[in-house]
Amino acid sequence: MTVVRIENLTKKYANRRGVDRLSFEVEAGQVLGLLGPNGSGKTTAMKAMTGLLKADSGSIELLGMDPAEELPAILERTGCMIETPGLYPYLTAEQNLALTGRFYRGFDAKTVGPLLERVGLLPYRNEKVRRFSVGMKQRLALAAALLPEPELLVLDEPTNGMDIEGTAMFRELLLAERERGCAAVLSSHLAHEMEQLCTHVAVLKEGVMVDSAPVAQVLERWGSIERYYLDVTHSDGREIV
Ligand SMILES: Nc1ncnc2c1ncn2[C@@H]1O[C@H](COP(=O)(O)OP(=O)(O)OP(=O)(O)O)[C@@H](O)[C@H]1O
Questions:
Q1: Does the pTM exceed 0.90?
Q2: Where in this chain does the record put each ABC transporter domain (predicted)?
Q3: Residue 38 Cα, ligand 1 centroid: separation in angstroms?
């Protein structure tokens, strides 16, 4: 099943930066990694595809639906973690998840404890989020994204600020979600992490997708995502490594 179908997605800010005619598809059980230098348009692409930003043109289909018409139905089945996590600082970790969970039909409050355990926050469940570190907030935002048992995850630099245990936890968790048939789009600057998590990668440069490929093919031809990335982003012949 095709979970994400994006065609010619364009979103330009007033300063003409943004993304230009992006096209990609993600099937159930696939994880697409967006790579690209700072400011290349990864966050903009993720915001535009999930309706956080209104696209200028192009077509977006998520879970077989058009977000312009059926955004609530899509969000019911989607977990998002884009830029600053939308957490309530004066509530505890547990209260945050219980409150966010109420937005999802069929939410069972009994799932909150196991979810906090999955992201390693069970010992902190009764602490207010305003005292959390950056990595702890990322862990909680990840738990919130998993609340709806998503069929689609959209994660912008999810391991930013996470410690080594956190990144290992994230890897196990995403691989389990992938195994379950969940589709994901994620961005990261960690090429090695992408190799472990993604089935496909796409490289953005100045708002344009300059290349995309299945990870297996990248590893076969380039040996690593880092080499592939450096090759396609510096294809003007300059030596970089
Ligand atoms: N609200 C905004 N108004 C104007 N320009 C913006 C806005 N948000 C982003 N941009 C510009 O759009 C371009 C793409 O930004 P975006 O945040 O999507 O990049 P990114 O690939 O996610 O970067 P990073 O790797 O640093 O997170 C950049 O040139 C940025 O300066």
A1: yes
A2: 4-231
A3: 8
